[in-house]
Amino acid sequence: MLTLLDDTTLVYRMLIGLGGLCERGVSFFHLKSPTTQVDARSSARSISSLATIRLKLTLQTSIKLHSKLEMGYLKLTFVVTTDASLYGIGAMLQQDDDDGLRPLEFYNKRMPSHKVVASTYMRELYALREALDHWKHYLLGRPFKVFSDHETLKWVQAQNNPSTTLTRWLHEIALYDFELKHKKGCYNRVADALSRHPEYMTCLMGSYDLRKNLKEELVEYIAKDPELSPILEQIQFDPSNQPDFHECKGLLFRRYGKYDRLCVPNHEPIRTHFLDLAHGWSGHFGFEKTYESLLQKFVWPGMKEMARKFVAECEVCQRIKPSRQKSYGLLHPLPIPDGPGESHSIDFTDMGKKSRNGYSQVMVIIDCFSKFLNLIPLPPHAPTDLVIKEFHKRYIMQCGPPKTLMSDRDTRFISADWKDFTYQNYDIKLKMTSDRHPEANGLVEEVNQTVIQLL
Ligand SMILES: [Zn+2]
């Protein structure tokens, strides 16, 4: 269950978990008794008090442990466990001495900012490379095992066309003789804990650093929210009324399968704060990743659209992410025809009203050289075959076919019938302006205005 915890409690828990594992390496450490009561079911308050005791013990142990972590025995097989997160990498060196795996050394390092944007695969590989390099005095020249929680690393050696960086890393890693084994994230707790920043464990917990009163604000605004407050009241009266929801210290959670998501009240600063955590604090990834990260923890109506807008309007993203749109070409003026009858412009103008004969559209044809204008009336929504018929009867039969015909991308001008008629019958070359750029054919647009004005 997702609960709001004080971030120091989280740090305690991480240290407790880590300390618990370290105890395996220290035989004389028997200070477990006050700490075994600390588990996930304890309340946050009781954890805090117990965890304080445990933390002190763990820290004392860690200090003793530092001198007690033994040197590796070169005859035993080494086991390296690695993990990577957005914030850092974590690794552990162990040896199997017939009494389970005994930790020898721990290693963690901050993830360089340029690696953060790399794929998970690259981050995991980076963690592996750094760990191997750190313990090369133990590992070079002898077989050992590597556990990692990212399954794709298993195919690391069978890459087709790897990038330059990847090739270099693979060459460095190829110096070692190891067997790569997948270890599920849930069993990879130590490396996991070493690689993760406490603020990243959950958005909620991390947020306490900045806004100590966030929980109080949430409780206050959930109680005021017109949609959430009735649900909260119903649950407090009888929890079976709302089986999809549950309440915890004034906060409302909605069940989605195994997971619970916090119902965020309709209060702009709180929602923006969570959006900022999922986007700005998590590395300014695109909409998909931001929304995915939000979906794991929160729910509110219109969250998707709000996230999309937030990402699109993010100032940092706009500043640092270059546009990959291919640059537009230069605008070229239309060629000047050599004489009359060579180049014509054609367009439709809607009059917005019907004439007595039932016409409402005008086909405007203009000679680009002599500016000779021909107007052909058409009924509303004239189909292509009628346009062809009228153009043939009232224009070509009287003025002759032009060499080129300039038009916009009206559906009738891009239809196969129109192309067949102009090209096959009269060998007219069709030229079309770009979409939504009527200014490219300025002459005919100008005439359209005048026609509308006169009629
Ligand atoms: Zn951004």
TrEMBL record:
Q: Which domain of life is it from?
A: Eukaryota
Integrase catalytic domain boundaries: 336-455
Any one GO MF annotation of this record: hydrolase activity
Q: Which InterPro entries match?
A: DNA/RNA_pol_sf, Integrase_cat-core, Integrase_H2C2, Retrovirus_Pol_polyprotein, RNaseH-like_sf, RNaseH_sf, RT_RNaseH
Question: A GO BP term, please?
Answer: DNA integration
Q: Which UniProt keywords apply?
A: Endonuclease, Hydrolase, Nuclease, Nucleotidyltransferase, RNA-directed DNA polymerase, Transferase
Q: Which PANTHER family match?
A: PROTEIN CBG26694, PROTEIN NYNRIN-LIKE
The protein's name: Integrase catalytic domain-containing protein
Native organism is Chara braunii (Braun's stonewort)
